[in-house]
Amino acid sequence: MTVSGHGLRRDLDLLEALASTEAQRAGGLGVVRLAEVTGREKSQVSRALKALALEGVVERDPDTLRYCMGRRLFRWSRAVPRTGWCGPRSR
Question: Is 49:67 a contact under the CB 8 Å cutoff?
Fold first, then answer.
C-alpha cells in the first residue's frame, strides 16, 4: 500500500468510528476517544480531523468539542440512489 493509501485508510478508520453506535448516541466523539478507538496518537487524530473538517467531511461541535459526520458525506450519500451502485446488480 502506498503512503497516501495508508493515510486514507487511517482517515477511513476515523470515519468508521464516527459512524459507530457509540458516536451516534453520544452526539459525536472527541479526539481522545477517537485516538483510543483507532489506536492512534491524539496529535495524529487531531491533525487528521482538522483536515477532514476543512473539507466538510467531519464537523466539530463548538460546545462539546466532539466531531461528527459532516455535511459533505451526506451530500455524497444522496447521490447513490441517482447513480446507483457500481458493479453488477443482484436479480
Answer: yes
